[in-house]
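notes to self, project folder thing:

trying the whole complex as one job this time. last attempt i did each chain seperately and stitching them together was a nightmare. two parts in total, labels are on each line so i dont mix them up again. if this works i'll redo the older ones the same way
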Amino acid sequence: MAKVLMKGNEAMALAAIKGGCDAFFGYPITPQNELPEYLSKHMKENGRVFVQAESEVAAINMVYGAGGSGARVLTSSSSPGIALKQEGISYLAGSEVPCVIINVMRGGPGLGGIQPAQSDYMQITRGGGNGDYHTLAFAPENLQETVDIIKESFTLADEYRNPVMIAADGLLGQMMEPVDLERSSNVKEAPLKPWAATGESGKRGHRNKIVSLFLDPNDLEDHNLKLQKKYNRMIDEQQRFEMIHTEDAEIVFVAYGSMARIARSAIETLREKGIKVGMIRPISIWPFPEKAFENLPKSVHTLLTLEMSLGQMIEDVKIVNQGRYKLDFFGRTGGVVPEPEEIVEKVLAMKEGAN
Amino acid sequence: MKRITIITGHYGSGKSEIAINLAISHSLDMLIDLDVVNPYFRSRSAHGVLKAHGVELIGSTLDKSSGSDLPYISSKGRMPFVKKDVRAIYDLAGSVSGAKVMMQYNDYVDKEDYDLFLSVNVYRPETAEKEAIMHTIAMIEGASQMTVTGLINNANLMNETKEAHLLHGQRVLKEVSEALNIPIVYTCHDRSWTPKQAYEGELFPLTLYVKSG
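result (full assembly):
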């Protein structure tokens, strides 16, 4: 199929349909409303389920129910709405029910604002709900990558029997870009789900139960050890990143999503000035792409973390850095989207300070 | 150009950019931003450039509310329908819910005094074909209680746009134009290039203000 011009939220919605989404449950919040609006029309046209729930809490529990019955399920929201869903996400992870959650991030804390931000990094990568659990989380940088990842995410959710989170932001949700919805992506038909509660226990001969409750501590520990094995497999298999001009770089940016997009322009400007900068762009934020930091060239002396927050991912950078490189940080927050020039100025000031 | 121009269309069809460019190129007195649906990328974000060109921008009644999604509209938005020497352009929000906002001016509307132009980008999947565009027109006319008087060909894939895209847009819009007897009034293109083929209506170069602002 040829390219079409789509708004981010619409493209995410259509990508979910293309990825095999059977059902959507959600509650409105800016800046992601075009996503459920689009699905409210098109899920029905495609013979699938769309429900606007009475609250975020209801929506995530509908996801839990529909996912538990074996359907491919989606919910979407923005930062404070995702916070409301955390209890449900913990239950989904604990009972190994696959689902896809799109978070079109806005400024926080609390109700915050409605402009783009990346201040949910902790909420997404550290859980937010209770217990030792992880959600697979991807942070795409442009609409084509967003579409490709959302299509694939339903397949990944099924493969790992785990929630997958898409960390977009208001900028990606609202911007328009040409996209190809049919570009090949790793989309597989939904597998057989012998664990699902389908109401057919009579035919099956035993009863499937979807639970996260284990009253015997030994059983619960065994369950956690089993989950941990799965998370370790995700860490091995799902670290995704892009290296940009790192081959001769002295300063390496670490930035994801919209911030990486802005950083690309800054890299161009700085390279024109003869300053050797590059970037590690995490595409998966959980698992954090530790592998990207393994073979950096000898020329690197500083890692500059860039975020649309006051510093959340930098904690992962610190963990992976283990004291090897100097660390620095630049961030804007509250819905302020930085200009590339601000990053350029930051780097120039760092060079000034070093001399 | 009539005294009052109203720009409607599916969201993402380029309404705000077209409204701002028309307001500036025709030195209009006023641009009324009636986009109460979505707080991102609406014409009020081009406040500075409009002011520099002497165009008064009417947006929300709330100061500093450019980041708000509260659906406030200034009562000043009615002024062009009352003061008959004001030349103005209205920028509606997307599709049917956006067009509904015009209903409030129904009692004031003088049929001879306005044009309602539908901006269409055939590379937006919701308005890619004749039937879908005709459906959009019917829905917008129903919601606004006004008649679409002109079509704007704004076929584009942003900076991937080629002349073939504009020609395809024209082919599709001609079918609509013939079926409904509504003329194509403008064919838009980015100011960075000039189309070479023949087009219906006026060729109208756009400078993008909202996207960059």
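what i see at first glance: Chain B has one domain: 11-206.
need to look closer tmrw
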